[in-house]
Design a protein that fits this description.
Layout (H helix, E strand, L loop, with lengths): L5 E8 L1 H7 L3 H15 L2 E9 L9 H11 L5 E4 L2 H4 L3 H13 L3 E4 L4 E2 L3 H34 L12 E4 L2 E4 L1 H15 L4 H10 L12 H8 L7 E4 L2 E4 L8 H7 L11
Parallel strand pairs: 1-2, 1-3, 3-4
Antiparallel strand pairs: 4-5, 6-7, 8-9
Helix pairs in contact: 5-6, 7-10, 8-9
Length: about 270
């Protein structure tokens, strides 16, 4: 490769990785520019991928890089490390192979790998396996943490039902919506059909969680959701959670007389 070699850089960070080791986008870009300056190459562009997991297939910056490689935009791509490319051996080899098919060599700075050489190609495969193993360990640690939090009745993310909102790290009751939820349960306990409840709410101008019109299906989801009794589901059992209940167990059971109760722990 001559001094006129055109080079592209690719940098990526996902939230959990940046929090873990502080190797952010700016630091990655500095390392690439330092290497390009040392080699005397020409840096044409740095492709930045922010907040995107290496497991994600749909990465806009990576797709743009592949397109430019196909069109002959550069001869070399520099990655800060193998795990910036992908979190599985298969993905790394496919991406590297695609670049090689279009006469583009790859350099992985942290591992000191240049895949234009046979030794570099072999080392790439070995380090890709290590990156995949590390990724699985991270996933298992995150999953274990979520399981422990769920077992204690904590919030582990995801959709919150109508009547609740997230504030800081806690789940709080939205009083105005909670009043509607309680009324829905009371109407149902009195024997009102789901369609009638939905029609009454719509006529009263009460918006749904997404601002739409109330349907019987919206009402049913509320009436059958144990979350309103202050519980969350964990491994098939409804356990006491850390958020406040909106309706009592008695009222919930009045509206769901045929619903299984033996899986509820008090």
């Amino acid at each position: 490769m001559s001094e006129q070699t055109r080079v592209a850089g690719y940098i990526r960070v996902s939230q959990e990785r940046s929090a873990k080791n502080g190797y952010g986008l700016d630091a990655q870009e500095r390392d690439i520019k330092r290497h390009v300056e040392y080699k005397g190459w020409e840096l044409t562009k740095v492709y930045r991928e922010e907040g995107v997991s290496g497991y994600c297939k749909d990465r806009p910056a990576l797709q743009a890089l592949m397109k430019d490689a196909r069109e002959g935009g550069f001869e070399v791509v520099i990655f800060p490390s193998i795990d910036r490319v992908g979190r599985s051996v298969k993905d790394v080899i496919e991406i590297d192979g695609y670049l090689r098919d279009h006469n583009v060599d790859t350099v992985f700075l942290r591992e000191g790998v240049d895949t234009s050489t046979p030794t570099g190609a072999l080392y790439r495969n070995i380090m890709s396996s290590v990156a995949e193993f590390e990724g699985r360990l991270i996933y298992e640690r995150l999953s274990k943490g979520k399981r422990e939090k769920a077992a204690a009745g904590g919030y582990i993310g995801g959709w919150l039902p109508y009547g609740y909102a997230k504030k800081d790290d806690a789940i709080v009751v939205v009083k105005k919506e909670a009043t509607v939820v309680e009324q829905i349960f009371r109407w149902r306990a009195e024997g009102k059909p789901l369609e009638s409840i939905a029609e009454h709410l719509a006529e009263s101008g009460v918006p749904t969680q997404r601002g739409g019109k109330w349907q019987a299906s919206n009402v049913r989801r509320i009436l059958t959701n144990h979350f309103y009794t202050g519980r969350v589901e964990f491994e098939g059992t409804f356990i006491r959670a850390q958020h406040d209940a909106i309706v009592s167990d008695v009222l919930f059971q009045e509206c769901n007389p045929t619903k299984e109760c033996d899986k509820i722990t008090r």
